[in-house]
Every structure is written in structure tokens, then in C-alpha cells.
Amino acid sequence: MSHVPLVPIGRPRQAALDDATFARYREAVSERERVLGERRAEVHAGWGEKYVARVHKKGKLTARERIDRLKDPGTRIFEVGTFVNYGRTFQGGLTSPSAGVITAFVKVEGRWCMVIANDNTVASGAWWPRTPEKIERAQQMALRLRLPTIYLVDCSGLFLPEQSRSFPGARGAGHIFKMNSLLSAHGVPQIAGVCGDSIAGGGYMPIISDRVYMTERAYMVIAGAALIKGAKSQKITSLDIGGPEVHVHASGCADARVPDDETLIMALRREVARLPSPAWDYYRGGAGRLEPAFPTAELVGLVPPDHRETYDVTEVLARLCDQSLFWEVMPSMGEEMVVGVGRISGLYVGFVANRQGLVGSPDAPGRKRPAGILYRNGIAKVAAFSRACNADGIPIVWLQDISGFDIGAEAERQGLLAFGSSLIYTNSTNDVPMFTVLLRKASGAGYYAMAGLPYDPVVQLSTVLARLSVMEGRTLAIATYNTKLDDDFEIVTKDPEERAAIEKGMKEVEARIEKDMDPFVAASQMDTDEIVELGELRAYLSMLAEAAYQQVGYRRVKNPRIWSLHDLSNLVEGVRG
């Protein structure tokens, strides 16, 4: 029982897929990832060089420059929420790249931190519609993983022309301060650097932090000078009202003043360095951080861009797990699902993945049925695995490529509603960190059952191939016009005009659904946290695995000798020699 039976999986690329097919897939996926890169660069530019120059003229760094100096040298920034509000315009034709705030996992003094930084090149760091929700989402990630949270505050308050869509509501701007409070109540370190404007809600945002630093150009005020002038006819600057002279030396709302952004960054790094060291090496148990036996970069040509084409998900796992070693649990049941354990960055992680192609049917030996669908045994298998991982403290990665649940009279007779409810209950009540990846299809209730965003994974990532919807466009069009079709889905009417209208309507529905399934649409409206290239998927998962194991004492983490997974495996498969 003390041994986790990791075994080699996967094959060299040439054995897994022929050169011509690999090249065809790679070309199609690379084109989509090229668009992803261009759009990332567009968002990262904020409102452009003109506004960067304005920030520099004030003697300040931009938000992205601050983060770049804050991170440990040689490490990368793992941004989440890059494309929030992408493609949306607001009053006056204005855009809000990344919703005017940068949220990212950043390694500082060897520890993963959540950094939340107002983008001062976009309306002076104002809060737009969805800005509060994005900040709160990042705070939730930090709370779930107990990560130190660093606020780089340079915020001019709400973008007032759109205040009705960001001020009220259960997740409006005020909820940020509740999240500040919850982080504090759970002992999560919060450190704030006030680098410029900090008005109204922006003024409240840093106050609950454990340490608050202010630069000489920064101020924190409930109301700025313009409002004071209008309300009280007093001519006074915002620095006079709430600069470091006031809040460091009089009110006590800040702890220390520093001359500039560069000094502020050094001070923040010193604060993080005082925190306990990460627990990764302890939980690795002497295991190293080893690369897969097969290059992760090959995923760009191994996953077909057409969702109707199949692939071997084992080859995906082989390019994500350390040394391409994996322990598949309960392989003889629920063949449409793959569940098991591998290491990422030397740390144990559970995987749940949808198999593709055709699989056997336990109810009809010799018959095949399509995978990528949840059947009774597969659902039971995933639920049992999810419960065992939660009992053992093993973080779970869900690799989704699913069309939904099995349907029909036999499925209902077998009680799929109840089996599905058991899985949903399990995932809803798990304490262990869960991370979800939408590889391709994420359809219907299958998306929910596989720990989609409504079931609170800490982070949900999408590839450029992800398709998030209730059902495919053609299927939905048929369902919409069902009363107009016969049993073969052909239009019943013989009237030419009515027939043309139905055909036009079905094409419009299909086209609209296909457009809505674009991952950039999901990312824009916060239905997924980040879009990533297939080749960077392992890097994101490595970071998340380390983040899940960084802190001690806030969740159960059992040693592998007493894993419930051993009991589960032996009960199903028998004791191996």
C-alpha cells in the first residue's frame, strides 16, 4: 500500500500519430493560438503607448511594469482573467482591456502569490462593469489556496458612466471588501502597495490588508479633491486630503511611506520573504520536478481541432505528467472515463479525463458505443474517485472533452439522474482544490458533472479549441424547430416560403450557437478564467499544483500509505502481487 504504482504511459509521437495528420492538426491549432497571442498582446497594451507615457510622466510605473519587477527573476507570470470584457465597448465607444485590472499568480520570494493590480493605463485604473467580479474571483482563488495576496492599488474609483453595472448587486464593488474580510478571517496574508490614486472603493480596498505601504505620489480618500470642492467649496488637493503624510503619520491607515514605485516593490518583496517557506518539497517526499518523457509541445498536433475527430487521451496525460508516469485507477469499469494519479512538478495530482472514440458496453458484450459521454459506470467511477481524492487530500485536474450524459429510455431506467446527482453532490462538497481544463467539448450537464465553473473549481482553463454550450449548434437548431421536422429531422411543410423561412431560421440558430461557443466569448463574460495554449498547459498545471501544496494546516493531506485510493483499487481490481 505504501507504493503508488505509477507506470509509463504514452508513445513517441510518430507511433501515436502519423506525420501528415500531426502536421495538419498542428497547422490548424497553431493558427488559432497565433490569434490568441495577438489578442493577448492587444490586451496587455492597455489603452496604448500614449497612456503609458502619461503614467511615466507622473514618475510612476505601469501596472505590468510593477508586476514584472515584483516577480522573482526568471519566473513567468500566470495571468487569469486576461480577456474579461474583451470585445465589449462602453459609453463613448471606450474599451476596458482586461476590465482595467490585472490578476495573476506570481512567484515572489519563492512563494506563489495572487497579485491584483489596477491597470493605470486604462482610465487611471477605474473599475468597469465586471472589474469587481474579476477582483473577487482572484480573491476567491487566493482564499481557496491560502495564497498571500498583494494589491497594487492605483484606482480612480468606479468608471462613473457605467456605475449602474458595477456598483450594486450581490457581486458589485462592495463585495470586494467582504472578500478582503474573509481572507483576513482565514489568516491569508494581504499586503497592499498604494501607488497612486485610491479613491472611494479604491481607498477601502487596501485598508484591511496586514501591511499597507504608500508612495509619495499616492493617496487614499473616501472622496477626491473635485468632489470635496463641489460639496464643501474647499480648494484642497487629494494628496493633502489623504496622502502619506495623513495616513502614515496621523490616521494610521497605512504603515509606511516610500519614495517611489521601485522602493515600494522592494518593500513588498521583503514582507513576502517574512512568510513561512512553501511546503512543496515536504509533500514531494524527495521526488524531483521532472519533465514528461514526451514533449508537452507535441499536444498542439495531437489534439484534433475538429471536435468530431478522436484522439487517445492517454497521450495527453503522457505529456502532462512527470516522466509520463501514471497510475490508472479502476481501468476495468466505466471505460469511457480515465481516472488516476500522476505527479506534476513532483506533486501528486488526480486526473479525470474523457476518453474519445468507441468503447465497450458492459450491458452488451461485443458492442461498441461512443466515448466522450457519461454512462452509468463511468459516472459511478468518477464519483468514487473524486470522493477518494478528497479524503486523501489529492488535488484534482479535470480534463474535459465531453458531449454530455447518455440519454434515452435505457439511460433513464438505469437511473442516470441519480448517479449524476451523486457525482454533482460529491464535487459540490469537496474541500480539495480542483482545477478544470476545457480541452475541446464542454457540453450540457456533462460540463457541470466534470467540475465546470458552476461547481467552484479553483481555476478553469480553456484551450483555443474549447466549445462551451448546452449542445452543438446543429443539435440545438433541430431542438428549436422540432415541431417543424419529421422523425428524420427533415422539414415537414411543402410550402416553399415557410420551408425557406425554417431553413433560414435553423441556419441562423446554428451560426449563433457556433459563435457563442468561441472561447473568447466565454472568457469575456467570465465563463472561463483563462485561455491557454496547449503547449503551456503543463506550466499552468505545475504552478497550480505547487499553489495547492504551498500552505500547511488548512486541509487534510494524507501520506500515500493510507490513501483511500489503495482500498478502492483493491476492492475493484483485487490485490496485485
Rg: 26 Å
Number of helices: 23
Query: How many distinct folded domains?
Result: 3
CATH architecture assignment name of the largest domain: Alpha-Beta Complex
CATH topology of the largest domain: 2-enoyl-CoA Hydratase, Chain A, domain 1
CA(first)-CA(last) distance: 11 Å
Main β-sheet description: 9 strands, mixed
Principal-axes geometry comes out as: globular
- Helix/strand/pairing class, anyone? alpha/beta
Low-confidence stretches: 228-233
Question: Would you kindly provide a written description of the structure presented here, covering whatever features stand out?
Answer:
Helices cover 38% and strands 18% of the residues. By secondary structure, the protein is an alpha/beta fold. The protein has three domains: 45-277, 2-enoyl-CoA Hydratase, Chain A, domain 1 (Alpha-Beta Complex), CATH 3.90.226; 286-466 and 528-572, 2-enoyl-CoA Hydratase, Chain A, domain 1 (Alpha-Beta Complex), CATH 3.90.226.10; 471-517. Strands 1, 9, 10, 11, 15, 17, 18, 19 and 20 form a nine-stranded mixed β-sheet that branches. Helix 18 (444-449) links the parallel strand 17 (434-443) and strand 18. Helix 15 packs parallel to helix 17. The chain is globular, with a radius of gyration of 26 Å. The protein starts with 6 loop residues before the first strand and ends with a helix. The model is unreliable at 228-233 (pLDDT under 50).
